[in-house]
């Protein structure tokens, strides 16, 4: 007798075969129908989300994590717009990447094809539900989603709305399946459903990602946590630095591309740090720094060794003082999580060295780390931000959800 997850896996596998045959026109039409349905049923989505928000408040969830969970009219409209943007993007499926002639007359090419069934295990953020569907659907994949218990009402509602859009477009509703049993046992079974799921993508905190990587028998694309640094170089526009750091830290606290760690060259510490601290204080951000930083701004709390590697996802930031660009690069490469790092500088050579030597998926010069996002990169949405180095790295758009197959044309060749 099939288990609950085996039943979902079987349905998704069957749906993926049909999805792989959909034309670009059919897929774009389906995305438009789903986007329209999201906008039409905003009040229903907000009502179900409020159930999750009420439970979060009762459980004492932090404001930053509540913000990740919260749906608003604007966020629902952004989800719909993301689907419309995906519809407007080029369809990568069927693209022939190369074609070469062999001496024996064989023509050997490489063609982009769907992965098949994509499994996603994620926490809190219900907008992931729509984003994941849109990207998987456009690339001819079926998707099995397992969200956290804290967002179950929101996720159920969004999936029902997506299915309604697919139904109006006369497409299989099994192209998106939600694991409604949020128990750990079922999550563990999903991680081992290699017969049905072709790739598994965890999206959430360090604990979730580590659990999936350690327990999965399905190939995993690891999306990482974000201990993102901003380095203030000795050649710097102090006002620009303060504005970028304020944005990167405070625009949204509970996201993986928020700045968690500040690194400052000692030659500009007295010039730059007070203005940065003043801006962060306006947002009630707790600042933890080394002795040199605390000597300049006495309200800064002492930092421990653990602070240098911490992803706070909260109104907290660390400050490390360095004596050179080399020391800044060494410090960041030691403690970063491979996500997003930035340098604020007026020195072109320092900017290029930073970009060349920092080991991360996204490396910025004079810009906020908050731009590491599929929507901002022009992908319409993202399935996650990969911090690994195999297959996909950085914000994962359409191409990251494809694989390739070799296509070979002959005229009777046999191997001797």
UniProtKB/TrEMBL annotation:
Keyword annotations: Amino-acid biosynthesis, Cytoplasm, NADP, Oxidoreductase, Proline biosynthesis
Record localization: Cytoplasm
GO cellular component, one term: cytoplasm
GO BP terms in the entry: L-proline biosynthetic process
Molecular function terms, GO-annotated: glutamate-5-semialdehyde dehydrogenase activity; NADP binding
Enzyme class: oxidoreductase
EC number: 1.2.1.41
Main location: cytoplasm
Biological pathway: Amino-acid biosynthesis; L-proline biosynthesis; L-glutamate 5-semialdehyde from L-glutamate: step 2/2
InterPro entries (alphabetical): Ald_DH/histidinol_DH, Ald_DH_C, Ald_DH_N, Aldehyde_DH_dom, G-glutamylP_reductase_CS, Glu-5-SA_DH, GPR_dom
Pfam families to which the protein is assigned, alphabetical: Aldedh
Aldehyde dehydrogenase domain location: 11-287, 316-378
Role noted for this protein: Catalyzes the NADPH-dependent reduction of L-glutamate 5-phosphate into L-glutamate 5-semialdehyde and phosphate. The product spontaneously undergoes cyclization to form 1-pyrroline-5-carboxylate.
Family of the protein in this entry: Belongs to the gamma-glutamyl phosphate reductase family.
UniProt-recorded name of the protein: Gamma-glutamyl phosphate reductase
Organism: Mediterraneibacter gnavus (strain CC55_001C)
